[in-house]
Amino acid sequence: MNVLILGAGQLARMMSLASKPLNIQVRAYDVGANSVVDPLNPEVSYGDLNSGIAFANVITAEFEHITHDVLAQCEASGKLKPSSRAIKTGGDRRLEKALLDKAGADNAKHQIIENKADFDHALQTLALPLILKSALEGYDGKGQWRLKETDQADEIWADIEAFFHGSKSTVKQAVIAEQMVSFEREVSLVGMRDIKGNTKVYPLTENHHTDGVLTVSIALNDNAALQAQAQQMFDSIANTLDYVGVLAIEFFQVGDQLLVNEIAPRVHNSGHWTQQGADTCQFENHMRAVCGLPLGSGELVRPTAMINILGEDSVPNAILDIPSVSLHWYGKTKRAGRKMGHINLSAATNQALFERLEKVAMLLPAQAFSDIQEYAQKLVNKG
Ligand code: ATP
Ligand code: MG
């Protein structure tokens, strides 16, 4: 079986690694360079998109911001899974909100803004504070504005207008104004759906962000009611999209209620812990799903956490001295804030995991992992 992945970053790399034991051959399409490469060795090039499509039995994606002409060309081959509709929905917040409404998945009160009149209307009808998010090309908190007071409105509108003018997208840009949700915590659910429509999910993870970027995810499996709520929304969204593959849903938890923040039609950073904490990791399960194989279990084998390594190309080797700690590098060149790798750590109980997380955090350089020690301490004290 041969699979072409649209996108040649760390997610393609980890899908390729997980595919080796299944004898699935993976190549990745570097969209920017219009070149098909080996995701484990990107210097090796196999030609352009046409040669990648010819090589593949199945085509899938590691990210949702793919130009529509590339998606159309892949879909025309009959090999694309999930569908271009699903990928586009993850890449355009307008389509995403429409999907959530159709699937009956609760989310923040919002309005689409394409011009000044829409902007003024949103200010009149939605309660402040607002978060405004670009409809297209948003990731890791980029293309977002926070409007807390009405006197910021002119400045923010000028910024958004400039953003519209600067857009290189062939699709009309817009922003979504969303009411700020005052949530207790952010959680996400990673799950998968096979070609027959069977679904499985991993346990919810608690996600900790630093300056708007995910830094720690913890899989705990300690709240059956919340898990059932998340799974129901997963099934509804995945079935509405007739989805095939791994799909992630980010939520805000407000009391015992989940509101969907956004979906990602692909393997997800908050699912990297599955490499050590589940029988079958998200990368293998995505490949199984798109290749028509049965799905592996999403059950938690042991409490597991993940720490993102951002902008650093080394960490103290001493962390590997701690039991059940593993290190995953992506082979990328160092750049400020760039996702360079991650650390997975597991333990027999939740409390032992919190203590181990604190131990690892103490060994990491404080300036690059600024608030992780504090977060770990809080978890230890809370128990
Ligand atoms: P990523 O790629 O990291 O998922 P993104 O650019 O796609 O980020 P969002 O996930 O929509 O953007 O928002 C980034 C973060 O901003 C969220 O994780 C959350 O902390 C905060 N945020 C977003 N929307 C809201 C909201 N309506 N209310 C409160 N906080 C929000
Ligand atoms: Mg997000």
UniProtKB/TrEMBL annotation:
One of its GO terms (biological process) is 'de novo' IMP biosynthetic process. Gene3D superfamilies: 3.40.50.20, ATP-grasp fold, A domain, ATP-grasp fold, B domain. SUPFAM superfamilies: Glutathione synthetase ATP-binding domain-like, PreATP-grasp domain, Rudiment single hybrid motif. It catalyses: 5-amino-1-(5-phospho-beta-D-ribosyl)imidazole + hydrogencarbonate + ATP = 5-carboxyamino-1-(5-phospho-D-ribosyl)imidazole + ADP + phosphate + 2 H(+). Signal peptide: none annotated. Pathway: Purine metabolism; IMP biosynthesis via de novo pathway; 5-amino-1-(5-phospho-D-ribosyl)imidazole-4-carboxylate from 5-amino-1-(5-phospho-D-ribosyl)imidazole (N5-CAIR route): step 1/2. Keywords: ATP-binding, Ligase, Nucleotide-binding, Purine biosynthesis. GO terms for cellular component: cytosol. Residues 97-291 form the ATP-grasp domain. Its EC number is 6.3.4.18. One of its GO terms (molecular function) is ATP binding. ATP binds at residues 93, 133, 138-144, 178-181, 186, 209, 261-262. InterPro entries: ATP-grasp, ATP-grasp_carboxylate-amine, ATP_grasp_subdomain_1, PreATP-grasp_dom_sf, PurK, PurK_C, PurT/PurK_preATP-grasp, Rudment_hybrid_motif. Homodimer. Catalyzes the ATP-dependent conversion of 5-aminoimidazole ribonucleotide (AIR) and HCO(3)- to N5-carboxyaminoimidazole ribonucleotide (N5-CAIR). Belongs to the PurK/PurT family. This is N5-carboxyaminoimidazole ribonucleotide synthase. It comes from Thalassotalea euphylliae. The lineage of its organism: Bacteria, Pseudomonadati, Pseudomonadota, Gammaproteobacteria, Alteromonadales.
